[in-house]
């Protein structure tokens, strides 16, 4: 590596200035990239929260894991509001900012609706709002990932999506048990299970995984190998508490994996 003295001797002062300016640009780019990667993780978290809000509301309405879902719902609403504010403060792209405002309106609506007395009409409305929030945050994620271009950002995208999918699975499982038994509920469940399985294989095959990441993925693999069959039996039902707890366990583990991907360079 060229030291300051070697550059001066070989190229002179003008080149020295250009040399160190270039080093500053590289450092600035890396900092920007790290910031973008962190934002991708934050936006990915919002995708998870959009599904968890609906899941907790529906579980509370189904009178299953009421204390846990009630506490989790309050925490999730608070966390989602914080994350939304963080995105607003950190992103300047006008198109993304406009979409963030739209998602914020959806969040306000779903926040108010989840405070109302539970009924099937409210449950369907909360489901629809959670889908709209998810779509908006998917776009934000895609836009940030394109601006980053980092390989790590794709891993973060996929790992946060896994967290989202696990909450989505529980959401549709309990929705079906509550009486929302249209084809869309079953189809969305099956699609979520299939995408989770495919993405899990991709993450496990990733060559840049650290031993710690691989150990956590293998732990999920053992659990998933058993429980995914329960999820696919949505029409049979009868296992809402198992679905609640196992999907929360997967979400927690995937959150830890996402944090480890954020640290990868």
Describe the structure.
It is a single chain. The chain is mainly alpha-helical. The protein has a single domain (36-144, 159-263), classed as Formate dehydrogenase/DMSO reductase fold, CATH 1.20.1630. The chain has nine helices and no strands. It has helices at residues 4-11, 13-61, 66-90, 94-113, 120-148, 151-177, 183-205, 211-232, 240-263. α2 (13-61) packs antiparallel against α5 (120-148) and α8 packs antiparallel against α9 (240-263). Residues 1-34 have low confidence and may be disordered.
- State the end-to-end distance: 21 Å
What's the CATH topology label?
Formate dehydrogenase/DMSO reductase fold
Q: How many domains?
A: 1
| 3D shape | globular
Write the H/E string, N to C: HHHHHHHHH
Question: DSSP helix count?
Answer: 9
Secondary structure: helix percent: over 70%
Question: Which residue ranges are poorly predicted, with pLDDT under 50 across at least 5 consecutive positions?
Answer: 1-34
What does the main sheet amount to?
Answer: none
The Rg value, from CA coordinates, equals: 22 Å
Mean pLDDT: 85
Number of strand segments: 0
The proportion of residues in beta strands is under 5%
**Any idea what the CATH architecture is?**
Up-down Bundle
User: Under the CATH scheme, which class?
Assistant: Mainly Alpha
Structural class: mainly alpha
